[in-house]
Design goal:
about 280 residues, alpha/beta, Rossmann fold, Dihydrodipicolinate Reductase, domain 2, five-stranded parallel sheet, about 30% helix, globular
Length: about 280
């Protein structure tokens, strides 16, 4: 008697479809992220961008390997699964709200604006969207989040920047504080993270991110210094908790925009990779 063994079916997992990404603004941060996506990140595909200067943005994307449309900020969610908000804070709602209403994943860099729009989290929950805050120019948010699962007693951050990187900040203008011609470090602000992001919306989004990871914007203490000897944007964080006490410092190389460090754009790229990577490192 002959026995015929059934042919074993080889089970294969279908290749997942690339997730599409739209970039809100092609400034110092957005241009780097868009270029990295166009160069190729496995599992991700650039789908659209927005910009205040449409003609310049169109010239930029025309040179890409795969040119994408330049669309109004409010329409980014029509083109992509993931929307990256890296625009001036006044454009926050125009980019983020339509994306969350469509259930998109939104990477937010204007974290200070997130404090001013607490309804965004509820909007995401209602429509199945998701808000992700990349580490940005900071470090150690994983450790702060872990400590927050226990009891954090205090979080303090001291920021030192070249005076040029602070010029024009609302807190300086309102209080008639000049940072020109300094010959020694000048403390220009001390207060809560909530107050800091209002007074320095283009400078200390890191303060908002730190506060959200830890004990909130009203209990997180921030100092801002204009330091004429500084050539980098420096942040030093001290956390006292029941699980650990730690201090972290970072000195960021400024991008072409002195208010923003180069590492901020790279942090977004890393966060995007993590969304599609089969291996995730960190909390």
């Amino acid at each position: 008697m002959l026995f015929f063994h059934p042919v074993e079916k080889r089970l294969t997992n279908p290749q997942p479809k690339d997730r599409t990404v739209a970039i809100g603004s092609l400034g110092a941060i957005g241009r780097v992220v868009a270029a990295r996506l166009d160069a190729g990140i496995p599992g991700l595909q650039l789908a659209a961008v927005s910009a205040r200067n449409v003609a310049r943005a169109q010239a930029t994307v025309a040179a890409y390997r795969r040119p994408v449309p330049v669309v109004p900020a409010r329409e980014l969610a029509e083109h992509a699964d993931i929307v990256v908000e890296c625009a001036p804070s006044e454009a926050f709602a125009e980019i983020v709200e339509p994306a969350l209403r469509k259930g998109r994943t939104v990477l937010v860099i204007s974290v200070g604006a997130l404090l001013s729009h607490p309804e965004a989290e509820a909007l995401a929950a209602r429509h199945g969207g998701r808000i992700i805050v990349p580490t940005g120019a900071l470090l150690g948010l994983d450790a702060v989040r872990a400590a927050a699962e226990g009891e954090i007693r205090s979080v303090t951050m001291v920021t030192r920047k070249p005076p040029k990187g602070l010029e024009g900040a609302p807190h300086l203008v309102t209080n008639n504080i000049s940072v020109q011609g300094l010959t020694a470090p000048l403390k220009v602000f001390e207060g809560s993270a909530r107050e800091a992001v209002k007074g320095f919306p283009a400078n200390v989004n890191v303060a908002a991110a730190l506060s959200l990871a830890g004990i909130g914007p009203d209990r997180t203490t921030i100092e801002v210094w204009a330091d004429p000897a500084a050539t980098r944007n420096m942040h030093s964080i001290t956390v006292v908790a029941d699980s650990a006490e730690f201090t972290m410092s970072i000195a960021n190389v400024p991008s072409e925009n002195p208010k923003t460090g180069k590492i901020t754009a790279l942090s977004i790229v890393a966060a995007l990779r993590r969304l599609v990577s089969p291996l995730s490192i960190g909390t």
